[in-house]
Amino acid sequence: MTQSLLFSPLTLRGATVKNRLWVAPMAQYSATDNGIPTDWHLAHLGGMARGGAGLVMSEATAVLPEGRICIPDAGIWSDEHAEGWSRITRFIVGQGSIPGMQLAHAGRKGSTQIPTQGRDAITEEEGGWRTVAPSAIAYEGLPEPHALTVEEIADIVAAYAAAARRAVEAGFQVLEIHAAHGYLLNEFLSPLGNDRTDRYGGDFAGRTRILHEVVAAIRAVIPESMPLFVRLSATDWAEGGWTVEDTVRLCAALEGTGVDMIDVSSGGMVAHQKITVGPGYQVPFARAARAASSIPVIAVGLITEAVQAEQLLVDGAADALMFGRQLLREPHWPFRAAVELKSELRWPGPYRSARYRGSIP
Asked: 297 CB contacts (<8 Å, ≥6 apart)?
């Protein structure tokens, strides 16, 4: 067989990922009430590794209790969390995949019900909390957040670094900073969430300052050999918000800061966003980000076919691809994709009697 690009390895610092078909971070709302991962996370993430994905990224994992979106979101704000994650990373590694953790803070979009129950805010009596944000600007339909002080911003940067240390102890081999989808770091980046007039607001340099500080704080505490990703929303899809041009400028500014890959998504800042959705609809954003610097990029968004995925890599739109709903529907889809692309992908020993042999049944 001739190995396709999708099933070729990619080395970032000291980590070599066996292929470029990766699991996107997907919220599961299945942790304990204090953010400890459960058997569900082992089955969900472990199943993706068993299914052949090269890198398996955790859901957005809160660096602080008030950094959760919903109460049953997973966390990494204590040593107990690290212990809970360890058995999951061991299993992922045992399947030949790389475990990654996305570090996150929900900002003004936190303290809500899980999506199946609606997206309304939950009260303190229900276990909720006062949310925080760069400015006292509410997300539509949610309460006004507390505007962070400069001292509180420093505490949050430190929380990211502490969470990164715990993630390393838990066995994760890649970390990603979540600066997309309208959550805290994205709120700082976008004029729609940040009207500060101090050093963390105003112009482009001010609005991007906290992201640079988080990158530096994490890079200072993790091994030199560990890759660090940043997930960005390339555009807010709303007038007066963050734009693709801003993303291109930020990618160039991240050059040389210790960021090893940029994960390009979009949207989430405001409820009135106007998104044009279609197959591969976010790929042009990844292409623009890739052209802006030497930092490799990940493309995401309605990539559902093996040939489609391969062509995106051949065309140079991205260096790797993340898949979400496609892998929820078919966790072992990488094996099917490998056959379609006439590529090799090693099956787990207990499953080899069922492997595809050159054609799709």
From this structure: 261, 262, 263, 264, 286, 289, 290, 318, 319
